[in-house]
Structure formats: C-alpha cells, structure tokens
Amino acid sequence: MAISSSPIVLDPYGSDVPGEVSRLRALGTVVKVELPGGVPVWAITRHDLLKQVILDPRVSKDPQRYWSLWPQVDERPEWGWLNLWIGMRNLVNASGMEHRRLRNLVAPSFTGRRTLAMRPIIERITAELIDDLTRLPADQVVDLRVAYAHPMPLRVICELFGVPDDMRPEVAWISTAFIDSAATAEEAAETSARIRTFFPALIAHKREHPGDDLTTELINARYEDDRLSDDELRDTLLALLGAGHETTVDLIDSTVHALLTHPEQLRRIREGEVTWEAVIEEALRWAPPVANFPLRYATEPIDVDGVRIPAGDAILATYFAAGHDPHQHGEDADRFDVARPPAEHLAFGVGVHHCIGAPLARLEAVIALPALFDRFPDLALAQETPTPNRLPSLVINGLSELPLRLGHPSKK
C-alpha cells in the first residue's frame, strides 16, 4: 500500500526512468503523482496490481465520461501534450460498447495474414538500409537511430498505410512531435494542427487512389451497417502510427544498446545459446518502449492494495515499473538477462487494449536485429558517448541518439 506523501512530480523529459521508478516503489505500491502541467494521477508499481486495475471493469479508458478533470482540458493549454494522447476518439481511448464497435471495424485489418504479408517488405527495407551502412567508413561514428532504427519502421508503416513518398516526411515529424511530453502549449497546438491536416489529406488521397494498404482498407471497413467516421479514421491512423513506428524504433535501439553494454549476453546469442525471440521479450520487459501510458479512469471508488482511488481519478499504466517488479521477475528484475525464464510482461498492455500491432513490432525486431549484428560483427558503442541522450518523454522510453562504430562488415 502507499505511504502518505504529497504527489511526486514526474520528470517530463524521462531522463532517469529507472531511478524514478525506484523512488516510487520505495513510497509504496499505489502512489499519487503529477504529470507535466500539474495533472494528478495514480501510479502503480506492482505488475499484478497494475494488471488487476487494467482488467477491472470499474476502470475505463473514456476521459469524456469518467475523468473528473476532463471539463478543464480546454481551459488548460499546458495540458495540450496530454490531450494529444487522450483526446482522440479511437481504440486506445474507448471502452465497453464503443471499444467493441471500433475493434470490430479495425481488427480485421490486422490479421495474421497481413502481418505475414509484410515480412518480405520488412526484409527488403532492412537489406537496403544495411547495404547503405556497409558503404560507410568502418571507423565512422554513426547514429544508429538516424541511419537504421528510425527509418526502417518508418518505411514499414508508410508501406502499410500506403503513404506516398512526398507525404512521408510529415509522418516522421508527427511521430516524433506526438511523444514529446515536455512540449510547450504552443508546440502541442502545432502538433495537433498538423495531425488534423495530414491525416485527412492522406485519407482524401487514398479515396482518390485506393490501393492494397491499411488506409484504403479502413476507409472501406464495414461491420454490419457501421463504418468509421472521418474523425475516427484520422484518430485510428494516428493511434496505429504511434503504436507502429516510434515504439518499434525504441525497441530496436534499446535492444542494441542493451546488448552492446552487456557483451556476455551478446556472446550467448552469437553462440546460439539464446534465440532472438527470447532476446526481444527480455528487451520488452527490461526496457519497454512505453514507460507510462496515459490514462485510465475509475468509474467508481476502487480499492487497490488498501488504497482507495476515488471515482473520477486518473490512473497511469506504469509499464516500466511492472517490468522491473521483483515480485514478478525476481530480485534481479533490474538486470538485463536474455536467458531469464519466461514470465508475463505488460509491454504491449493486456486485455482488450492489448496492442493490436504487437505481432508486427515483434516481426520487425526479429528481422532487423540479427541482420544488423550478423553484418557488423564488430559493432560497438562510440566511446565519446557512453550514455546516449534520451527522448524528452515520460510516455516513450527511448534514446534520442545511439552513436556507434560499425566496424568492417562481414561478407554476405
């Protein structure tokens, strides 16, 4: 249970997520915190309790109906960054009948068949980027995020969406700006405006030029006599972009950084003791791409480990804390261990809001990571920057750069 204290103000830059989680855990299992702009929420530091809350029918994802502070959103421009996450009407922010309706319309576009159909596209994009890297001098410092981890999922998501080449730079801009929890009110307003311009333009383009892509499929999606409205189309595409691009970038970056800072773990992979699938699951647990996901809301008072969360209060899904919970993952939960016995993690959520794009993210990682390490056996961190800078976000857990020396490429 929580120790009585004034709310802890979370760092909007996410500069030390492990340290912040440790401080919260020391205060208790259910802790009152503040998000940027002074937004009060509850944070949960135990895996089992977070899962219990997420699955509790008395907890909703709908802010307009259940968050007591929702009427203040339009009057609080400093909450603009948060409204980008919770104000859109899509699968992420729907519950109950509305969520079932939207999932019935969207889920058929995310079949196993579509994910498998993306494999040759992912392999082609990966090979092209690897070939580009081989042309660089072996001793040159390369930012892996810029040269590989960011463009690979971006090109995949653009292929999936059917985005024409001239519109792709805007996809990259929105994907980066959307996650910035340190954004000013003016910056958040610009991001919102560009979202509300870009996605309708993409939808209009695909109506004129339909193709075998996700955007066209969602435009044409029907369930009985129902279809997605234009606003729902826009917000659904935004949610899928957020789930399908930046999180995959960070999964690739974080896994590479973890392996290069744990050479004994990398050796076990190279010697075939551990599969890449196991490596990816450990990376998802240890460095989940989403550290804290906003928000859920108590529809009535609920008791969590002896703490009463009042009706109308907001709850943060603290996935990083759950991934490092010693009750779930052992006393060495803070240690990266690719041979760790399998255990449930919450990196992709749980229940009806489990990430619909999880199979695609795993597929991209299991193609991109071995391809990189196989082609560059001497891959190493650049000594000038042993600790890379982090993305300015308390939501997304990622690196803003990953400077490496590639070394000499192996022969194909």
From TrEMBL:
Record's keyword terms, sorted: Heme, Iron, Metal-binding, Monooxygenase, Oxidoreductase
InterPro entries attached to this UniProt entry: Cyt_P450, Cyt_P450_B, Cyt_P450_CS, Cyt_P450_sf
PROSITE patterns tied to this protein: CYTOCHROME_P450
SUPFAM superfamilies attached to this UniProt entry: Cytochrome P450
Keyword Heme recorded: yes
Coiled coil: none
Pfam families documented for this protein: p450
Protein name: Cytochrome P450
Source organism of the structure: Streptosporangium jomthongense
Lineage, opening ranks: Bacteria, Bacillati, Actinomycetota, Actinomycetes, Streptosporangiales
